[in-house]
TrEMBL record:
<protein>
    <submittedName>
        <fullName>EAL domain-containing protein</fullName>
    </submittedName>
</protein>
<feature type="domain" description="EAL">
    <location>
        <begin position="24"/>
        <end position="278"/>
    </location>
</feature>
Length: 292
C-alpha cells in the first residue's frame, strides 16, 4: 500500500515537473521567436526630483506581448532569458532601442535627462559588452553621460570574469553606473568602495512599512545617509504614497520613482511627462491628467 502510494506520488511529481519543464521550453521558444520583433518593446518610468518635482530621468523597462501567452511580466521571462542566454541579444536590442527612442527627448529641451537601462549579469559574461555599448552609443548618437546602466548587486558576487575591468571601462567611457535593488540579496558594502558607482537605488521592498516599522525606518535612513556620505545619488524605488515621499524628502533622498508619480508608460507619453513637473507636496501631488 505505502509503496504504491509512494509510487503514485512520485508519478505525480514527475508529471508536474514535466509540465513545468514543458512550459519553460515553450516560453523559451516563444521568446526566441520574439527577439527583434515588436512583441518586445519598452515602457519608461519617470524618476522624479523630490524637491522640484522635475523628471530627472526615465528607466526603460522591457515588455513582452505574445499573441498566445498574452503579456508576460519581466520577472517571469528575464530570469529565463538569462538562463538560456537569450538575454544577450535581447539586452543589446533593449539598449539600442532605449538610446534610439530617448535621443529626441534630449533634443526637445531636456538635455540633462538620464536614461536608465537594466543590465543583466549574463551580458557581462559575454566578452563583447563594452564594444556593444560603445557601438550603440556611436550608432544612435546618444551621449554616454546621459546613460546610466543599472546593475543588480547580486551580479558582483556571482560573476567571476573581469567585473572590475568592465565597470571601470564603462566609467571611463563616461557611462554612469547604478547599483539596483540595493539592500536585497547579497549586499556587500565593500562594492560601494571598490566599483565606480554613481547612483544607489534602494530596493522597493524597503518602502513597505517604512513609516510604521522602526527597524525599517532606521535602515532606510542609514542607507540614504551612507550613500550621500559616499557622494552617491540616491533613488528610492516603489514610492506609492505621499507619506513615503515626505519622509524621503526629510531624510535627504534625492530622487523617487514609483506609482505615486507614474507607472511605466509607452514612449509616446514620455514627452508629456517631461513637460509638467509633478507636485511633491502632499496636497498637490497627483499624476498629470494626460495619462488618465
Ligand atoms: P527593476 O529594475 O528594479 O525595476 C523596477 C520595477 O519596479 C519595475 O517592474 C517597475 O514597474 C516596478 N515598480 C516601479 N514603481 C513601483 C511601485 O510604486 N510599486 C510597485 N509595486 N512596483 C513598482 P517591472 O517592469 O515588472 O520589471 C521587473 C524587473 O525586471 C526589473 O526590476 C528588472 O530587474 C527586470 N527588467 C525589466 N526590464 C529589463 C531589461 O530590459 N533588462 C533586464 N536585464 N532586466 C529588466
Ligand atoms: Mg532597474
Ligand atoms: Mg530595482
Ligand atoms: Mg527589481
Amino acid at each position: 500500500q505505502a509503496k504504491l502510494a509512494g509510487r503514485n506520488r512520485f508519478c505525480f511529481f514527475t508529471a508536474r515537473m514535466n509540465e513545468e519543464a514543458e512550459a519553460r521550453l515553450r516560453l523559451e521558444s516563444e521568446l526566441r521567436r520574439a527577439v527583434g520583433t515588436e512583441q518586445l518593446f519598452l515602457h519608461f518610468q519617470p524618476l522624479v526630483h523630490v524637491d522640484s518635482g522635475h523628471v530627472a530621468g526615465v528607466e526603460a523597462l522591457l515588455r513582452w506581448n505574445n499573441p498566445e501567452l498574452g503579456s508576460v511580466p519581466p520577472d517571469r521571462f528575464i530570469p529565463q532569458a538569462e538562463t538560456c542566454g537569450l538575454i544577450v541579444p535581447i539586452g543589446r536590442d533593449v539598449l539600442w532601442q532605449a538610446c534610439q527612442t530617448a535621443k529626441p527627448w534630449l533634443e526637445c529641451g531636456h538635455p540633462e535627462l538620464l536614461l536608465c537601462v537594466n543590465v543583466s549579469p549574463r551580458q557581462f559574461q559575454d566578452g563583447g559588452f563594452l564594444d556593444d555599448v560603445a557601438q550603440i552609443l556611436r550608432e544612435t548618437g546618444f551621449p554616454a553621460a546621459n546613460l546610466e546602466l543599472e546593475i543588480t548587486e547580486g551580479l558582483l558576487l556571482r560573476e567571476r570574469g573581469d567585473i572590475d575591468g568592465l565597470l571601470h571601462g564603462l566609467h571611463a567611457m563616461g557611462v554612469k553606473l547604478a547599483i539596483d535593488d540595493f539592500g536585497t540579496g547579497y549586499s556587500s558594502l565593500s562594492y560601494l568602495e571598490r566599483y565606480p558607482f554613481h547612483t544607489l537605488k534602494i530596493d522597493r521592498s524597503f518602502m513597505v512599512g517604512m513609516l510604521e516599522r522602526h527597524e525599517r525606518k532606521v535602515l532606510v535612513d542609514t542607507i540614504v545617509a551612507m550613500a550621500t556620505g559616499l557622494g552617491l545619488k540616491v533613488i528610492a524605488e516603489g514610492v506609492e504614497t505621499v507619506e513615503q515621499l515626505a519622509r524621503l524628502k526629510a531624510i535627504g533622498c534625492d530622487i523617487a520613482q514609483g506609482y505615486l508619480f507614474s507607472r511605466p508608460v509607452p514612449a509616446e507619453q514620455v514627452l508629456a511627462l517631461l513637460e509638467t513637473p509633478f507636485g511633491t507636496e502632499p496636497a498637490i501631488t497627483k499624476p498629470p491628467a494626460v495619462l488618465h
